[in-house]
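Reviewer comment 2.1 asked that we show a complete input and output for one of the modelled complexes. We chose the cytidine-5'-monophosphate case, as it is the one discussed in the main text.
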Amino acid sequence: KKNIQIAIDGPAGAGKSTIAKIVAETLGFTYIDTGAMYRAVTYKALKQNIHLDDETKLAEMLTVSTIDLKPSQQGQLVFLDGENVSAEIRSNEVTSSVSQVAAHARVRELLVAQQQKLAANGGVVMDGRDIATHVLKDAELKIFMSATVEERARRRFIDNEKRGIESSIEKLQEEIALRDKMDSEREASPLIQAEDALFLDTTDLSIDEAAQAILKLAKEKM
Ligand code: C5P
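Response of the prediction step:
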């Protein structure tokens, strides 16, 4: 059995993290949520009142910050400078600001270096926007996962309800569409399907069906 790298990219709310977690668990691999890292940076920048357009200040802040991802019973926990910020990084404020922070090339460079280190030994499932195109260009399996924006907003709504975050489907749809636009149109590593990635439309798939589809492909590569 080979410790392969699995890259899962796609727009917001396509089910990447839920499905990636199941795939990782089933294979005994490590799950790495790169979006959580961009969220942690954004959370800290907001807290420190750093202007989200100030690339230099953001990069400086990041060089003196530590972001750790730790697996736990409740999924992946995110620690920023030793503090558990797993809930905080999912707030509406962070969600609506993160694409602005993630657009900066220097912020990305620093996080991508960390992500590559985490994945160096293989046996990983990593999800994000630029994993197949930049972070893990040699990943054995690359998946581009999407679903209609209506379905993605519906899923986020249910997700938010579970987390106790208030939201409306219309607002979520707007927020998701705007984030996708910013992520796809930025200059630094935009969200795009890699040429060698397989497209997986999850609109009409259950979580388990999507996970099984990826597991089948993974096992062929192992
Ligand atoms: O995956 P999630 O929705 O938590 O990601 C939050 C944001 O982080 C994305 O909208 C995107 O702006 C940024 N991101 C990124 N590159 C990644 C992962 C996330 O730019 N690899």
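Residues 12, 34-35, 38-39, 98-99, 102, 128-131, 179, 183 surround cytidine-5'-monophosphate (CB under 6 Å). We note this here for comparison with the apo prediction described in Section 3.2.
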